[in-house]
Predict the 3D structure of the following.
Amino acid sequence: MEELGKINSTRLYKLWKNLTMGMVTVIAMMTVSKLLPYYLSPVASLIAAAFLYTYIYDARSKRDMSCMIVPYGMLYSLVMYSFICIIINVMYAWGVRSIPQEFVFFNSPYVPSLLMNPVCFVTFLFMLVRQSKLHICVECRLANSDSVDSGALHGIFKHEAHFQLKNLTILFGVLTVLVWVYYLVFYVNININARDWYMFTWVTIICFVLDEVYFIARYYNLYLDLKENNEIIMPDEIQDMTAKTYLRFYVICGNHIYVDAHTIDPKTPYREVIDTPFFTKRSVNGISVDEIKRIIKKMTGYDGELRFFFGRKSLDLNNHSILRYFYFLDGEIDDYKEMNTDGEWMDYEKIKYLYSNNPGRLADISVADTTRLATIMLTEKTFDENGYRKSKIKFYNPSFNLIDVRKSNLDFQDDKWIRISFFNSDTPFYTLKRKWRMMFGKDKKKRNSWQ
């Protein structure tokens, strides 16, 4: 499974590309606002917002799972700027209160950066604080976290998304201070000169360009580091790969699971982790259930009940997929002391303890699978399908074991309960937010498909 741990080089390019598209769109909007009649500034910002919306929607429709956090933030910034700009000018037109001419696009000079920079700062600060709960980040986690090759890629996306938000928050914060200090202290509103335009427009553009250069160097160096460690896979290599299906089995008896406590972690060859010893691969694009049953029966030496857990395709290797299965054995673990595969029976309570307190003892893919299993089982026990708690005791937290898993009829391939775990009645103003989402179609059922 070595190739599944590698990162497609185009992922790093798209990580930079999406950042660039968001920043260039704002630069273009501010430049056009200066060149065209000032009253067209909100029109230019709404057109820019429409472009970013189309860009994000097109990428998602093509199932491009690259990080869209910056275009998403710029989209909301442009929309907020447009409405604030329009509201200020409506107040001016109606004579509600006196508005400085630099904020009125009917007058000259109109200075977009006085509004745009603080709006962007507030937007990205909010996104930085609320990153884990943002809708786009939740969708990204749902799409990527269970993939075969999500480990390193998910880590890069998570770290870089946070870094980009932090970087832009600081950038817009500094620009806001510079522009407003100049406006309040040094600017004379009798006649705007070249120095004024330099501070109000060109400083913002120059800072954006320098930030772009920094990120180009950052991601190029990241690419070189990954390539040096043989963690990069090129697009032409992907084209030459044959189809492969990986199978992982979790062999269960009662509340015990059969594991190998001395599995070698491929990322750190001198580190042992706990993982299932039952995994194999076939150079085909699909395997029949009967064949899968024969494989696990041969690996264990015992007849049991095979049940599908869930499956995912690789994010980058479209012809590579991994299928997880439960294999339930009747009776007691003493009946299955001799297995055809080396390992040991371990109480699932110990696995849960390690998962909660020392997940580094478990293999990364085992942690990801346990997260999905626990999330679905516990969410279904806690909430109904509408996201409301089944028990009136708000702080009631159920538990589960492998016996519950065997008795359960839940579809672990479906993301429904995972979505409910992110958005439920424990969310502030849940009822109002749920009605809002239903009104705009966000809670419509989505067909489940392999990511």
